Amino acid sequence: MKRTKIKDLFAPSLIGSEVSVMGWVRSRRGNKHVQFVALNDGSTIRNIQIVLDMARFTDEQLKPVTTGSSIHVTGKLVESMGKGQTCEIQAETLEVFGTADETFPMQKKGHTLEFLREKAHLRPRTNTFGAILRIRSALAFAIHRFFQEKGFFYLHTPLITASDCEGAGAMFQVTTLPIDNPPRTEDGAVDYSADFFGKPTALTVSGQLEGELGATALGEIYTFGPTFRAENSNTPRHLAEFWMIEPEMAFYDIKDNMDLAEEFVKYCIRYALDHCREDIEFLQQMYDPDLIQLLEGVLASDFVRLSYTEGVKILEESGRKFEFPVYWGADLQSEHERYLVEEHFKRPVILTDYPKEIKAFYMKQNEDGKTVRAMDVLFPKIGEIIGGSEREASYDKLMERITTLGIPMKDMWWYLDTRRFGTVPHSGFGLGFERLVLFVTGMTNIRDVIPFPRTPKNAEF
Ligand code: ATP
Ligand code: MN
After folding, report:
1. CB crowding 82-93: b at 16 or more within 10 Å, else e
2. Is residue 163 over pLDDT 90?
3. Ligand 1 pocket, 359 CB below 6 A?
4. pLDDT above 90 covers what percent of the chain?
5. N or C: which end of the chain has fewer CB within 10 A?
6. Phi, psi of 441, deg, nearest 5
7. 406 or 304: whose pLDDT is higher?
8. Nearest C-alpha to atom 31 of ligand 1 is from which residue?
9. Exposed / middle / buried, residue 58 (Cβ in 10 Å: 0-12, 13-18, 19+)
10. Ligand nearest to the CA of 208
11. Does ligand 1 have an atom closer than 6 angstroms to the CB of 360?
């Protein structure tokens, strides 16, 4: 079944040749002399127009050619007279793989994004989701390319973990014990020694701790895989299952870490603009008239680098009434992050040196005794897109923090070994892939940039 993909039909050199195309019908119109079918095969946002001369085809043959049906057409590719298209196919043969009756939900246009979320199994057939999914795929490739070109190694960290102190959020338990009647120890607690792994396990919230094992052996690594957080946060920026990219680098301090983060996100945005232009233009036209200007703006700007302390000062002096109060020590909310980025600086901001109380135990402590070498990259419309830090390299300081916080380290001896044997300064960060896709596509709800979103009370499809 050799076919030409529709995206390749628009090369001028193909005009005049015989082609074979397959795809799904977006619409059919016409009269008793001639019928026009708009065909899409997912390879591009563009449809190819199929012209069916009704002297060659019967009404009976055309009947199953409905919106949503799948067909195979052969014919000659010719220049088009119609406006808005460069070429069309004069059909010679028509084969219908499968028709679609009028209950096909993706009828012509104008569905709301909410409606499409309920039909997530079919929404990839729409222009919007075709565009988003192609951009998502290109961005995933760009990420690998960026790191591979720099000599980073792709490290596969486990999805099932026995450490309950990753600290990045609530976890989903993994067990094969019968939940309605688990085996119990003498004192009545669940007997996890009878469980599959012989101890409690959960889905990972981050691959970072294992990433550090990789970095302190291979030098520079990155992970790119799914992560799971059981937080009951129903926001347009949180998923229960999302993909994260976590580079981790030996011999990088916080400054090197910031440089890498800035170069990395810019590379991804540039890649999407260069390789997904038509899809981005489509989304701009449909959803956000300023999209390309915003993307180009980020590429052209140097990210502001600012300490948390200075950031809080700006927020306090802004005179703005925020929903959540700002004061030194507060965890910044998305409204605060967006104020700094969108209104105060009008470009991305990297905020550093957060109070140690609101950040994870493994971050490098500063001399002031109050702050740690954390860095969050804050973006317009998104807020936090990256969170990272220089890691605490000193075994003693790390242990002191673990003890103060009462973190259960019984299963973490392996992590501490990085600081016992040849410890090095090192840094890393995590980028939420869907937050990047949100930014590049101009969409506003994270459920619309992953094919099958998992959120509280929703694991359909
Ligand atoms: P937030 O404050 O936005 O909830 P976080 O500080 O909990 O995020 P980190 O633990 O720093 O997140 O994770 C690193 C990155 O992963 C974040 O910068 C963000 O881009 C992304 N991320 C975190 N949680 C989610 C989520 N539930 N859904 C999608 N992306 C997420
Ligand atoms: Mn964070």
Report:
1. eeeeebbbebee
2. no
3. no
4. 91
5. N
6. -90, -15
7. 304
8. 432
9. exposed
10. 1
11. no
Q: Is the CB of 242 under 6 A from ligand 1?
A: yes
Rg for the chain, CA atoms, rounded: 27
171 lines ligand 1 (CB under 6 A): no
H-run or E-run covering 114: helix 113-118
Digit-coded pLDDT (tens) for 256-300: 999 999 999 999 999 999 999 999 999 999 999 999 999 999 999
pLDDT band at 166 (very low <50, low <70, confident <90, very high): low
Atom of ligand 1 nearest to the CA of 334: 3
Point out the ligand 1 atom lying closest to the alpha carbon of residue 388. 11
Ligand 2 being an ion, which residues bring their Cβ within 5 A of it?
387
Residue 151: predicted pLDDT: 98
| Atom 9 of ligand 1, nearest CA residue | 387
Distance CA 439, CA 71 (A): 35
> For 356, how many CA atoms within 13 A lie in the half-sphere containing its CB?
21
pLDDT tens per residue, range 37-47: 999 999 999 99
168 lines ligand 1 (CB under 6 A): yes
Tell which atom from ligand 1 comes closest to the C-alpha of 229: 27
CA distance 70 to 39: 9
Quick check: CB of 123 below 6 Å from ligand 1?
A: no
User: Are 412 and 165 spatial neighbours (Cβ–Cβ below 8 Å)?
Assistant: yes
- pLDDT for 369 equals 95
Q: What is the DSSP string of 200-231?
A: -EEE-S-SHHHHHHHHHHHSEEEEEEEEE---
